[in-house]
Queue: 4 jobs
Job 1
Amino acid sequence: MTRVLIVDDQALFREGLSAVLVAKGVDVVGEASNGEEAVQLAERLAPDVVLMDLRMPVLDGVAATRRIQSLAKPPRVVALTTFDDDASVFDALRAGAIGYLLKDAPSAKLVEAIELAARGQSLLEPAIAARVVGEFARIAPAGPRNVAADHGLSEREISVLRALARGAANKEIASELRIAEGTVKNHVTNILAKLRVTDRTQAALKARDLGLT
């Protein structure tokens, strides 16, 4: 059962969300009302996933996400907020959030995001994903860089990274490249290590930054 920490400054929202998740079979291990509490509880309770509001007193969600990523065993962070402006989206993802959902998302979508995050995979709202792709396409370098030479990636790993950056799941990548799904998982593990990132979302952002999309 996935262990979740809920972080939001509105007590009523936390209580309602906790009840919904528990009913869906999610283990809610704690609640925090601000980013400072979130960092402390993330270290003490070691949840699998943190659902992080972004705008809170004491310490905001972006700063809290960044500090959580520096823990010895950081949990995955999914931003759950009412704000969908570009600054909020990009700041949260750059801080290390693996997913980004709005608070009006259906409960089934939220549970899916939690389960994916626990496995190191990301889920972004379609409109947000499109904006992320557009932004990184805009700032991508004019000419392709020698990714293999710079990061030690094999040609197969570059192919997997390109597919990953498009949002393809392991099963889709395996079918596209005609390799076993287990082989894809091994490639993804190697890619994360070589790019020095912690999850698929950060790898996808890195791929776009390198001009691979």
Job 2
Amino acid sequence: MNRLMATRLTGLYVAVAIGLAMFAGSLAVAATPPKPTISEDARAAVALMGKTLLAKEFSFHARTIRPYASENGVLLHVEHDFKATVRRPDRLLIDANGDEGPRKLFYDGKTAVLALDAGRVYATLPVPDTITKMMYVVMGRFGLDFPLADFLTDAPDKAFLHGVTSGRVVNKVTITGVPCVHLVFSQPPGIELELWLEADRGIPRRLIVTDNNAPGKPSFIAEMSDWDFAVHPADADFVFTPPSGAKEIDFGMVLSAQHAGAPQ
């Protein structure tokens, strides 16, 4: 998967995007970007999503299918299931499992812990005191790819629309009995995003991101469910306790171990 696709799928425009934004700012006089053409109903739907996802506490499940290129260039896919538990502004737990095995990300407001193999291999990293800033550090410094991160930032609607130049409502559909709005957005160069939001609450139910410029036009697919805004996680839920015999290694090394276990 090329860098642009990985960056968009991560949801945060870490490192490369920050550099591009600064570079673009220096050329603002020479080249003014076109004004986004996003329909009012599409903006309203995303704004409702942003308002709903600013809840102090919530959790949800997601199943993702993500493309990757094998050593001989064949486009393959890897699947993950995870539960995210959020307590704004400074607590996050990602409990994931999938083709690459189990892993968890703990964030307690001061430290991020990435644990693999039921916690038997883990790494810790001092990070800033908000979920958004923590994700910038972890993803930007180590390239940790957490899809759907837009939805966890302190401005979910703005994060999702960052870089988008056009958007509209396609139609209304029903997902597991719930009325949803189907939207489509474009982000140059060549990224297309389809987003399904619950009509009444703006809760994300499905996301498909397609890179039309990459060989095979790979698509990242996420199905989201079991949204719970009545959870009240305790501080202890976001703290990692290593099991007996666990090995602590460098944060970058644990990510390398994670990637080494990816399907080839």
Job 3
Amino acid sequence: MAKRLIDLLLAAMGLVVLAPLLLAAMVWVRLDSPGPLFFRQERVGRGGRAFRIHKLRTMSVDAAKRGPAVTELDDPRVTRAGRWLRHYRIDELPQLIDVIAGDMSLVGPRPEVPRFVALYPPELRERVLAVRPGITDPAALEFADEVKLLAGSADPERTYVEVILPRKLRRQAEYAQRANLASDLVVIIRTLRMLAQR
């Protein structure tokens, strides 16, 4: 209950404080390339329940038809505005709406698409999906430059599934087992510090 109240308070404050930045980013997305402002995609949340995540659109509208499910370094599907928004994680700001709606938390395992969740080992799946997914978590910090790890791979999606995803899952399971308000605060501070250094 305390975690949920803190999520609601900080997410609402974040939307108010960051509204000018979010509005400017939305205008840039609209002017930069044709298509919707928001990218909505089905993700798997707490207890295996599906929800549609909010992000600012950073790719061309036909991106899903023109490449893998993961994003590569210098991916040609990413728009000019999208490169900047992704670098500073501004495309993730609309997920504050998902926090307020109760689909996500500020801190929790990053939610995956159903086809990747289907690959989770049963014991890790149960632990990771026992908590509400989040905007940031220790695994997201560890793999903040994931696209660089995928650079040069002949098959980025296979590399993600076989190399990166198992490591992420272990970190997420550790978080889910040990998470508390103090550790969440540490993750939030580390995330803000990382963004400030970009």
Job 4
Amino acid sequence: MPADIQEMSADRKQEWRESLRAGLSAKERSALARVKMPELEAAARARGFCEVNSGLSPEMAVQEAKRCLDCASPSCVSGCPVNINIPGFIKRIEAGDFLGAARKLKETNALPAVCGRVCPQEIQCEAHCVYHKMKKAPVAIGYLERFASDCERQAGAAAAPGANGNSGVRVAAIGSGPASLTFAGAMARLGYRVTVFEALHELAGVLSYGIPEFRLPKSIVRSEIAYLQAIGVEFARNVVVGKTLTIEEMKARGFQGFFIGSGAGLPKFMHIPGENAIGVYSSNEYLTRVNLMKAYQFPEFDTPIARGRRVAVIGGGNTAMDSVRTAVRLGAEKAMIVYRRSEQEMPARIEEVHHAKEEGVEFLTLTNPVEYLSDRSGRVKQMRVQKMGLGAADDSGRRRPVALAGSEYLIDVDTVVVGVGTDPNPLIPRSVPGLEVTKWGTIVVDEETMQTALPGIYAGGDIVRGGATVILAMGDGKRAAESLHRSLQGEPAAR
């Protein structure tokens, strides 16, 4: 862990600093092997909600940082939706300036400790690493981002940069998920008075209610919120914009710019027979009960949860993986992923699939539920599934699943969690006249500026994209802040 550096002897620290000053050639750097993230052993972690990944030690972080070739035109930066100065923070780690690395990260990213844990670096920044051209493992950018931000937090040295002037202009962010938090941080650094309005009693949206403790500890989320408060962001909980407060009323209170980041919190179901049976949850309800309402600590907390013995989770994304791994921790004797495509088409992170398998999750791919059967009390007891084949590619580029005739069979279950996606909440779009929405209920924006059809109102994250990743939502929030700032300053939109 990063704290290890504080326990080194004076001689060991001096030896370590001298080793950092030793220059390496590109050939020597590229010969270094990528570090492996330390993690809890599968059997132990499956019995509780402790974080799975343990973090790099200082020596591991420096060793990995040495692999960075400091490219003249770093393609990793263009692969990052928030354009972090990746070589800049990594070179500070290599030099042993861990707090400097954290400060460099926060120049462009208000949530580095979150991103270092949950962002799919393997298909973004790391996917663009020059090492791929050499047929070698990319630099572990996500591991290093997590390391630097954890060092800062553990040292109690989080720097709160001063605002760039003090315009006094009030702006609002609706919802407190990653898109809104990024927007708020960027606007606060530019000198605006920012208030984030959240409908729930807990801040951070999907970071709090959707992602389990074993992937993203709530203490990490709280520390990121505290940083935003330190740079001047204000938070208003239990405010349902569109119901208890409207945007017109907010304008009357002096707000001059708005960002809608209310997410996509309405669960999707498959509309098959038996879906209303007792014991059939949406992934939203299941994870919210566990993560936000602490049902895994029942009866200490009074939110109950079904602790099924035979649990089937429908879907193949990160939410499905979070749900099935939660079921394992709640004591499931058999936990299954049921997915209608093959494993190669799964949108979940490779790491999450790997961890789920280590923890004993069974994967039923090319399988789709067609009916849930209940006992006399109305509780689900079985599901009828159908085997699938793969046909031609659909609009997503993945091969379309095709039902195989005569392939149906029954599986015993007592809990089902449906994790096949979410829809945007229609409350805000319906409450703002003139706001343009798609047939799916997402808000239409200019993709370059994130401005809606209404001047002064911007939107981003899942309310625009449907279900997407944390880092893409953050990229939306950053672009919206840049665009709103130019608008408020009377400057033309950047193109």
